[in-house]
Inverse folding.
């Protein structure tokens, strides 16, 4: 009897696992499989992350519990993204390859007609993203009346992505006799609500939530202004031409912008986020897997489930909101016994978050410096020189050299090298006018009040708009309905400004500016650490006299800026 049969799985499945090279069950499998196979079906909550073997933890018992002679939908598995549902379905298909159980996968962004057609085959297990599942239920392509097992995979991420209503709707239409198995990396209150509402005394099992540190990952951070994060990233890319990694950003927009900017500068990078079509995402992943790019720039959600083993770097353009997500991200490197680097770019105000991470995941961060131009120059020159030294001489070169012999005859080796170097100067030197030192030593502006009391915000209004700090303060306070006394330090730059707001009074602050327009330009306010450095589409600046909202009234008039309808 092998180790999987000991947990109660069938010999049939044990054989498949053997052929897949699974020898020992992982901790979540050891805990979950016997419970899920038990004669008294039970609701179940598994707190486990991707990479812990959780798909097999529910997938293996599921395949054994399904009645292959019944040709109706018996299980639905919901996952947040197309990639994750595809990967889950792939695993389930592998596990069921020796059994007649049929698994289908359906997700948004793909042709629904062909999915409906595929579902006409007897299908016992449907893996789906919630939105598409609802569509298919409405079209009666998926029927819930015989569903005995509902699996919510990556439940926290499904809620983060706004699938709460879909999940509610689906669960409320499944039969009372069904059991629900919920897997989640974290346990936010919304998951508790789902469990209270739809689950009967679930058994909760947790593995690895206190993530053990992976000794193969070196955790590093650099401290640099938000505006310097991109140039800093370039320097690391330049210094490590062999880098192959993922850079995490917080928003889809930021992801695309950074990928575009680096791409335009000639770096091998591409964006991966939820606004891309399925075909685009597949193409990006294919290129990433075949190593035709240096860096994948991705959102946390899009990157979940990416199964690539030999990444040298994980870069955090911005730290994630939830510290747990940091371990998700950094765990993409240092896999399969290889060493990896997890490098966070933090601005001076985020310094304390490094301390929080150190405490929480029990790793030590090493502070490193953004490479200086001198280091890069030297590294580029050495790479170039090594390339020349290591180049295998082509036969044709003898012939060419004979031809050119007289041309070079009067030059010494040194003369020739100097001239060769001169031809490369553009490449070897920096002509970018960028500051040399991109490191920050400590926080930005001196403030009289306790900085910890405030959150820092960005707004795309600056000196160019003809405003004084006082004007800006009035504007911000008017639109947000937050009293002026709760605002702190304001720093005005040419195109944008930064301001502090008391943490007790800034809830939903950015939303209050949504739809506000000034001279046909949308005003954008967001937390400084989320700042994407967005472009000013209208180069037009407002004069003091015509600073007004689209309503035509002056800033100081009540309601002077209008929401776009
Ligand atoms: P998951 O956490 O479900 O995303 O699984 C991560 C990876 O581990 C997948 O590629 C699985 O095929 C693999 N895996 C899961 N369980 C085992 C096991 N017991 N032995 C070896 N590999 C496993």
């Amino acid at each position: 009897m092998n180790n999987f049969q000991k947990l109660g799985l069938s010999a049939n499945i044990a054989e498949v696992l053997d052929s897949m090279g699974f020898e020992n069950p992982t901790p979540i499998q050891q805990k979950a499989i016997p419970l899920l196979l038990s004669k008294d079906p039970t609701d179940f909550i598994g707190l486990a992350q991707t990479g812990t073997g959780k798909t097999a933890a529910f997938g293996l018992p599921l395949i054994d519990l399904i009645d292959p002679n019944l040709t109706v939908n018996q299980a639905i598995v919901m996952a947040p993204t197309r990639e994750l549902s595809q990967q889950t379905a792939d695993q389930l298909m592998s596990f069921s390859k020796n059994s007649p159980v049929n698994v289908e996968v359906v997700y948004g962004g793909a042709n629904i007609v062909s999915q409906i057609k595929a579902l006409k085959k007897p299908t016992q297990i449907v893996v789906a993203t919630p939105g598409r599942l609802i569509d298919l239920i409405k079209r009666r392509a998926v029927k819930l009346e015989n569903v005995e097992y509902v699996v919510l995979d990556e439940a926290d991420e499904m809620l983060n992505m706004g699938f709460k209503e879909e999940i509610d709707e689906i669960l409320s239409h499944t039969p009372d006799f069904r059991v629900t198995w919920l897997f989640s990396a974290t346990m936010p209150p919304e998951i508790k609500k789902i469990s209270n509402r739809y689950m009967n005394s679930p058994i909760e099992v947790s593995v690895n939530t206190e993530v053990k540190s992976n000794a193969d990952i070196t955790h590093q951070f650099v401290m640099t202004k938000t505006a310097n994060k991109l140039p800093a990233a370039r320097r690391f890319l330049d210094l490590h031409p062999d880098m192959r990694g993922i850079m995490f950003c917080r928003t889809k927009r930021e992801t695309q912008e950074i990928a575009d900017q680096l791409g335009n500068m000639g770096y091998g990078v591409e964006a991966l986020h939820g606004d891309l079509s399925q075909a685009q995402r597949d193409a990006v992943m294919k290129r990433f897997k075949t190593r035709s790019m240096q860096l994948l720039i991705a959102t946390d959600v899009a990157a979940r489930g990416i199964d690539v083993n030999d990444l040298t770097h994980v870069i955090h353009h911005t730290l994630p909101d939830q510290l747990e997500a940091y371990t998700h991200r950094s765990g993409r490197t240092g896999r399969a016994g290889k060493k990896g680097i997890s490098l966070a770019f933090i601005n001076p105000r985020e310094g304390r978050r490094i301390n929080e991470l150190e405490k929480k995941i029990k790793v030590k961060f090493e502070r490193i410096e953004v490479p200086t131009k001198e280091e890069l120059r030297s590294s580029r020159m050495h790479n170039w020189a090594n390339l020349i030294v290591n180049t295998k001489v082509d036969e044709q070169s003898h012939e060419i050299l004979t031809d050119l012999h007289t041309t070079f005859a009067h030059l010494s080796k040194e003369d020739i090298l100097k001239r060769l170097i001169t031809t490369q100067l553009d490449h070897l030197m920096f002509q970018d006018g960028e500051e040399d030192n991109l490191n920050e030593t400590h926080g930005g502006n001196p403030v009289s009040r306790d900085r910890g009391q405030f959150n820092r915000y960005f707004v795309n209004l600056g000196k160019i708009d003809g405003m004084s700090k006082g004007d800006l303060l009035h504007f911000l306070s008017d639109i947000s309905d937050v009293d002026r006394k709760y605002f702190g330090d304001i720093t005005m730059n040419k195109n944008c400004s930064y301001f502090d707001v008391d943490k007790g009074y800034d809830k939903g602050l950015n939303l209050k500016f949504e739809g506000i327009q000034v001279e046909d330009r949308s005003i954008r306010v967001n937390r400084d650490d989320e700042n994407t450095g967005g472009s000013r589409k209208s180069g037009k600046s407002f004069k003091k006299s015509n600073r007004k909202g689209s309503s035509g009234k002056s800033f100081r008039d009540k309601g002077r800026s209008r929401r776009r309808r």
Notes: The chain has 20 helices and 20 strands. The longest strand covers residues 217-223. Residues 451-561 form a domain with the Alpha-Beta Plaits fold (CATH 3.30.70.330).
